[in-house]
Amino acid sequence: MLKLLEKRYNILRTIYYKQPIGRRVLANDLEIGERIVRTEINFLKSQSLIDINSSGMTVTKEGEEIIDRLKSFIHEVKGLKEIESILKNKLEIFEVIIVPGNLDEDITVKNELGKAAANYLKNIVQDKDIIALTGGSTVKEVVDNMPKINTLKDAVVVPARGGIGRDVELQANTLVANLASKINSNYKLMHVQDNLSEAALKAVMEEKSIKEVLDMIHKVNILIHGIGIAEVMATRRGIPSEEIAYIEEKKAVAEAFGYYFDMKGNIVHSSPTIGIKRESIRNANKLIAVSGGKKRLKQYWQQKLEIKIVY
């Protein structure tokens, strides 16, 4: 009975995130037979949880309510609460929240990660907090899923580091402005390119507007960031090939804030950048790391001395 419930939950959830979706595509995504999918689709339709039309299947309002109500139940059934407790003690951090699924295989998990992190942020953020964000697709999901709040007019949102890349919607500055709009707070932006020379960085840091943001970053209360795969992030940031070769030679597995870590949590390389430094990271009251997928498992372990809250 529990396996059947979990199967129907997964089918309904997948339809919700990929709607409108056809039966064959759904069967392929879930890696189950079309005959099984047809049977379950007929059941969900009979319960008014989905609609079926020429463009594909969509979830009804009743279906959305069922997804929300079943989420915590599935969490318990899969034993995730116990795993959270084990990880919390093992990593010696404040909190662990696990979202079911493997992001490497199911992109919809990223939205669930964002919802979980946004819900936690909603419960801990206070007026006059200074909230720092990094860029990236996972942190974007946190911002996108943050509900409207109108009691944080004295809070300030700032980018955790500089960096102007090609994907404007994933840049820290964009996410900062969007989060500030969601929580009705103030915000500051920092328009600084990644990978400047040290001389150029020193010159930029003398600018008044940059100094103001840096002062706030060093007093941050809440820091939200993703955890990147070292080689992927090095390439994305346009680091020279000789530096990438050095990072690979040192067996770096993770990147955060321009720092590259090996499996033991040692910093093996750092990129020149303007923004938050390790001292400020350690001083942050609440550090929220949001990441997922089996490929990133080892990165959680090496980051254990830094993270207070993990998703």
Automatic annotation (TrEMBL):
| Signal peptide boundaries | none
Q: Which parts of the chain span the membrane according to its record?
A: none
The residue ranges of the Sugar-binding domain are 76-296
Respond yes or no to whether keyword Nucleus is given for this record: no
- UniProt entry keywords in alphabetical sequence: DNA-binding, Transcription, Transcription regulation
Instruction: Spell out the coiled coil positions from the record.
Output: none
Superkingdom of this protein's organism:
Bacteria
What range(s) does the CggR N-terminal DNA binding domain occupy?
5-74
**Pfam annotation, one family:** Sugar-bind
The GO molecular function terms of this record are: carbohydrate binding; DNA binding
What protein family does this chain belong to?
Answer: Belongs to the SorC transcriptional regulatory family.
Q: Which PANTHER family does the UniProt entry name for this protein? A: CENTRAL GLYCOLYTIC GENES REGULATOR, TRANSCRIPTIONAL REGULATOR-RELATED
* UniProt-recorded name of the protein: Central glycolytic genes regulator
The organism encoding this protein is Clostridium botulinum CFSAN001627
Q: What is the taxonomic lineage of the source species?
A: Bacteria, Bacillati, Bacillota, Clostridia, Eubacteriales
